[in-house]
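Ticket #4471: structure export looks truncated?
Reporter: QA, pipeline team
Priority: medium

Steps to reproduce: submit the single chain below to the structure queue and open the exported record.
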Amino acid sequence: MIKKSTFLLAFFLVAGHFLGQAQHSIARQWNEKVLEAISGDFARPTVHARNLFHTSVAMYDAWAVYSGTADTYLLGKTVHGFKSSLAVVPHATDVNAAQEAAISYAVYRLMKHRFVKSPRAELLFEDLDYFMISLGYDPNYTSTNYACGPAAMGNYIAQTIIEYGLQDGSNEADTYKSKYYAPVNPPMPVADTGNVTVVDLNRWQPLQIAQIIDQSGNPIPGNTQSFLSPEWGNVLPSLQPSDATIYNRDGHDYIVYHDPGPPALLDTSAIGAESEEFKWNHELVSVWSSHLDPTDGVMWDVSPAAIGNNQSYPTDFAGYQNFYDLEGGGDNSTGRPLNPKTGQPYAPQIVPRGDYARVLAEFWADGPASVTPPGHWFEILNYVNDQPSFERKWHGQGPVLPALEWDVKSYFALGGAMHDVAITAWGIKGWYDSSRPVTALRGMAELGQSSDPLLPNYHPGGLTLIPGFVELIQPGDTLQGQQGEYIGEVKLLAWRGPNYISNPTIDEAGVGWIRAKFWWSYQRPTFVTPPFAGFISGHSTYSRAAAELLTSLTGDEYFPGGMGVFNCPKDQYLIFEDGPSEGLTLQWATYRDASDQCSLSRIWGGIHPPMDDIPGRLIGMEIGPAALAFAEQYFTKTDTTTTFVSGFNLYPNPANCLVQVEYKHEGLLPVDIYATDGRLVKSTSLDFSDNRALLDLMDLNSGMYVVVGRDGKEGKRVFEEKVVRY
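Actual output as written to the record:
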């Protein structure tokens, strides 16, 4: 039986995602190599958002420096105090060939650096070497003397980004480890019943799992989670938002961008409005867990005719209660009657709610060969680019751009957005340090029920009883225990968990009444929940930022043709249990619809309550357009007129092949080259264009020489400089 892992390599296959390298730009080909590398690396959304941005910068700068029309971002610039030198601007006879070579060497070198500790590094590097050779490039060429040509320029760009990355606050040099964050809660052994170890139900709690396997399928040493990137707010962003707030805890700074304020907090000593909000948010996750059964008879139309098209989002608790359907699931979106691209109604797609919810949870979780959420949106961008009806017009206007120009610009913009989301969302996660549903639900279940002081097991911090979903175990209940020891405990109608699955290819856990102390998220038992705080949802923030950016840069809120699709075959898609029971197709009219669907998937997956979701969507709505505007400022070249020192300049020096000569001159200029003992060893003429010319040293032996430029009828010396040939 073919399971989901087979289909990950065929993402959006129905639309012809793999059309062959010949039809894709060199930037697209390298982007797919980056995505493949991410899928084989440890699942670290922050680290890979940074990798996607930096490889996109490498491609963009390699393209821009030869374009003659665009400005570079990092190359030859000062960014966040880091200065990149570019003494001479290169010229190329074949601009496209130069761009392709520079892009290839830049991304190749950067990937060899960034993925050196990947668990699949050996196989990855063999593939990258083979790919370089197949493109006609020598992977062993390592010169960074960019005056020697595009290959060296690519190497130099990679080296520049590597050096920048070693001082950008990510702590890359020490494998991105946190420097000072420490959890306040002891670990919770998830295989045990309840949560007796928790100290503060409002703070993040690491899980203790017999064998931890991350979302990319990599075994993780040890059996206790470590918080991923709690100090990522300290990483230098691609944007510089003015609304950064610096907090301090235990003498250490936490930088928070787009600060949403704290989530609702649980008061375990008294009933209060905020405490009830906390309970409602987490119990909604539990109630939605009861939807994960395709045999419950609930059928939904999951086409764009019935779902999507949200026009607004809540900003307070009352709004949350109206936006989400607590018992039925989903939100209050209305759908769209017509496809505006075809003028025809969207065809209904009636499927079991249990199949739809389970597929959503796995599709947007993107495991077990995860390209992480930012990579997922690069895949979606590539899917859009492959649609026959799509035109590469920036903002949907003007001329159709060449594939390479479109790709480097759109990757640069999307990468910047994803990088800023990582910095923003994880800065918020690290500071507010909120719990996950598995911690909160099991912890509240330990306390009891908070609905009625006259009923058994009352505690103000306990779960709120919801008839049909959250109840007390009564005498005679199958959950009462052999001696009735569980009578009076809280029980939940929920997905029953991994203990009911022996063979994932044929078994389903199903939904039933369980002891609330043994609630499970709808995830693999080796994963359970991501190793970082919940508030705010990274998926919601990444997705909404990307959706807003794609809407703007394509000039159309709709997917090409009015609908994006992904097929999920019957009994072949789900990983940790069998399903779906019927084949279904995920469908989105707009990029925002896809984003909203992603957000809901995390609730059905047991990963986030609504209070994690909505702030992420709202922040993403700010980051996406800002990131696009930031990228676009580089698309038009600014005045970079060089002021010559003493009238001329030579670069690089020392050199091993070509030296660029800068001098205020146009046309031919005679040049003599002398050995240090005064012997004339070479005479030539340099052809100056835009006050620049290239001097070839290839026919000289290693050593020091004196370069003399002559002008005028009498051949007077106009410049003289020593140069070293190595």
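Status: closed, not a bug. The export was complete when the record was re-opened. Leaving a note from the reviewer for reference: Confidence is low (pLDDT under 50) at residues 1-22, 640-645.
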